[in-house]
Amino acid sequence: MATGSSAMHRCPWKCIIVAVSLIFLNFFLQENNEEHLPYNLPLEEKKKILWQLNQEQMSSESKNYLATFKDLQKPSPLLRQANYKFLTGSLPQEKKLLTVGISSGKRPHGTYLLDTLQSLFEASSEPELNCIVVLVHLSDPDPEWLNQTVANISALFKPHIEAQKLLLIHGDLSDSPLPGDLNNVSHASPCEARYSRQKVSYALLMNFALNLSEYFLVIEDYVHCTPKFISTIYWVLSAWKELSWVILEFSSLSLSGKVFHNSDLPRLTSFFLLFHENIPIHLFLSEFRLLLAQNVPIRFSPSVFYHMGNYSVFEDTCFPVEKEKVFGEPDNPVANVLTDMMAGLNIIPQYAYILNKESYSVLDPVEGNYLTVILEKPQKVIRIEVLTGSDKQGLYWLQQGQVELGYDPLENSRGCTRYTLLGPLVEGHLDQRVFYEEDSVEELSCIRLIVLASQKSWLLVRQIRVWTQPEEEKS
Q1: Can you tell me the distance from the alpha carbon of 324 to that of 82, in angstroms, rounded to the nearest whole number?
Q2: Phi, psi at residue 259, to the nearest 5°?
Q3: What's the rounded Cα separation, in Å, for the pair 320 and 314?
Q4: Are strands 213-218 and 166-172 parallel, antiparallel or unpaired?
Q5: What does each C-alpha distance from 199 to 202, 255, 344 come to in angstroms?
Q6: Alpha carbon distance 165, 384 (integer Å)
Q7: Which of 134, 94, 166, 103 is nearest to 230 (CA)?
Q8: Can you give 304-366 as a three-state secondary structure string?
């Protein structure tokens, strides 16, 4: 971890973000002109705000600011002055479902940008590509590098450019000075200048994408895309459409694979410019998510994006690589299974949980039916997979359902007193990581599958698979 990043972990930087956020919101609520943001507060005032937050005694005024933050749609005054240049391609004629955003700059040892684009288009069918636009922001101002990169991409991806599926831009904020000097390399740590450039580049990328689509996916310029990743994201977005979320994660990588609502991009880009130093984006996004009341990550397994090449190529003290977690086989802990669904003769609910080829079949499940796995003792569960339907024919899957996590077990193993949503089934399937709120010591006691809509067909609960945290990782 870089010097700047480690310093953040030695201080309540989370509180600092929230405190300055409130000041930022106050600016938007009270100012309708083009004055610069009030970044510098007296030290005593900062201490006062931090003390209030640490004591969890936030004033009603501050709470109102946070509530207003959720509805904030006003772009940063700095981004209103952004300059953009179309390098190649043109805007799509209709709004898309998803913008795939990539920011790329010149690096000493070159980039994998061409390989990333090649992987993206090869992994996608024509109907899938019709749902998206690929937006690449070439952030480095060096004209020679820009011209060569544009020429290479134009030669390799001419059909996609002509079909308005690929667009290359360059943006800058040269006429809108940021607080501090982005060209100043004498930062407190060697990483600060890189964090600044990274956040400004992504702010420009996301600002340009505001009206291109309903959702925004960010991937970095050195990732491999798995086949049909667009379909995977499409069906997840459909299942989550009526649910509350801020960031959906389709990879264990620190930045690539994160999906946002385009409606959240104005407040996110404004935050990028407010905290353009000290904090890398991947750490900053978790705080942005918390401010919008998504308390834990929502991450799907398996990942659909991976680093290209060898990990050693990407080793960096400023941007450490998060390697993909290897789970191995599920280790379903001892549990009892209860349900109110009616099964055929000699079919017991336990079949849904035992790790073998047995399944639990139900005729005509109705809205509100449940199947609950009650763990013999609380566990630190880290991943859950629920498979419904026939493995070969794809029939008999739960058409509308969700999985909930239960805590505080009831007496006599009858379930749990409190449940939280893990996620809806996507085409009869759920495979998600399980995260816990920071510093929480609470462990899971129940896993509940809920039928959300009656269906006139058989339901086959093929298997519920559970992974628990190894003992050596619990300390």
Answers
A1: 36
A2: -115, 135
A3: 8
A4: unpaired
A5: 5, 12, 58
A6: 36
A7: 134
A8: CEEECCCHHHHCCCCCCCCCCCCCCCCCCCCEEEEECCCECCCCCHHHHCCCCCCCEEEECCC
Give residue 256's identity as a one-letter amino acid code: S
pLDDT in tens, 188-222: 566 777 788 888 899 999 999 999 999 999 999 99
Q: Is the dihedral of CA 308, 311, 315, 319 positive or negative?
A: positive
For residue 111, give Cα distances in angstroms to 54, 95, 103: 43, 30, 11
Give the integer Cα–Cα distance in Å for 181 and 200.
Answer: 12
Token pair in block for residue 3: 């010097």
pLDDT of 321 strictly over 90 = no
Tokens of 163: 């079909």
In angstroms, the CA 260 to CA 409 distance is 35
For the chain, the straight-line distance linking the first and the last C-alpha, in angstroms and rounded, comes to 21
Determine contact, residues 305/324, Cβ cutoff 8 Å. no
